[in-house]
């Protein structure tokens, strides 16, 4: 059942691209991906921003189901099985993330890439720094904060991707995107492990963990670094305007 939708996506992709010419952009053998990243400041910042973004996003995705389940278990509210409730809740939050990708992309067209990257990354960072300390709050308030968290954490993904296509030559774009994905998902794979280690250190074994703040703050460090990358990023059009 899970494989059915990718199959539908394959068919739709083929239909959408069947009239698109297969263009190969010429490239120089003397220039490598490392050369582009060394010379292109914006490309470095966007790749770094995506890497830090993945640290926060994938760590958050991995651990928020357990966080909400722990909140329900601590409060004693009758929501049924706590783990099941946390899983269903986070599944619904992923739908909010899909809405964020669409809306933040459109806003970036109106307000600019840099503005949206700074705002979305900063909001996600702030929530990462505080949500773990609020595990004993009423579940309704935590759910609302979690929705905002998911919205902001995924909202900069399309903007980061679009911005990178605008600052890298087409002949090297595929290679740069590959490096970006390798760094981002490798870092994102480590984040849940570090989160879990910090959670174990800060809580006694055998009991429902009640101290989540430090672990979420570890994710917030990635969000803070992504915010800094967005602050130092300069949009190509504005760079040309300042020089003229």
Query: What proportion of the residues is helical, as a percent range?
Result: over 70%
Q: What is the CATH class designation? A: Mainly Alpha
Number of domains: 1
CATH architecture: Up-down Bundle
Counted beta strands? 0
Task: Explain what this protein looks like in three dimensions.
The protein has 244 residues and is mostly helical. The chain has a single domain (32-231), classed as Growth Hormone, Chain: A (Up-down Bundle). 79% of the residues lie in helices and 0% in strands. It is built from ten helices and no strands. The chain has helices spanning 4-17, 33-39, 41-75, 82-111, 113-130, 139-155, 157-167, 170-202, 213-232, 236-243. α5 runs antiparallel to α6 (139-155), α5 packs antiparallel against α9 (213-232) and α8 (170-202) runs antiparallel to α9 (213-232). The longest helix has 35 residues, at 41-75. The radius of gyration is 20 Å and the shape is globular. The chain starts with a helix and ends with a helix. Residues 239-244 have low confidence and may be disordered.
């Amino acid at each position: 059942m899970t494989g059915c939708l990718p199959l539908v996506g394959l068919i739709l992709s083929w239909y959408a691209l069947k009239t698109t010419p297969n263009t190969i952009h010429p490239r120089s053998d003397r220039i490598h991906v490392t050369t582009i990243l060394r010379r292109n400041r914006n490309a470095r910042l966007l790749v770094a921003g995506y890497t830090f973004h993945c640290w926060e996003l994938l760590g958050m995705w991995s651990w928020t189901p357990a966080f909400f389940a722990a909140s329900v278990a601590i409060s004693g509210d009758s929501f049924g099985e706590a783990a099941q409730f946390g899983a269903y809740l986070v599944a619904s939050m992923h739908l909010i993330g899909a809405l964020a990708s669409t809306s933040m992309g459109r806003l970036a067209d109106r307000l600019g890439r840099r503005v949206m990257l700074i705002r979305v990354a900063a909001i996600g960072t702030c929530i990462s720094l505080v949500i773990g300390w609020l595990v004993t709050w009423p579940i309704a308030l935590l759910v609302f904060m979690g929705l905002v968290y998911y919205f902001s954490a995924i909202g900069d993904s399309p903007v980061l991707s679009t911005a990178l296509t605008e600052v890298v030559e087409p002949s090297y774009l595929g290679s740069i995107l590959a490096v970006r994905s390798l760094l981002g998902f490798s870092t994102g794979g480590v984040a849940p492990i570090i989160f879990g280690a910090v959670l174990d250190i800060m809580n006694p074994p055998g009991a429902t963990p009640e101290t989540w703040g430090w672990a979420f703050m570890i994710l917030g460090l990635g969000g803070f670094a992504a915010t800094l990358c967005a602050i130092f990023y300069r949009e190509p059009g504005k760079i040309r305007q300042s020089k003229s």
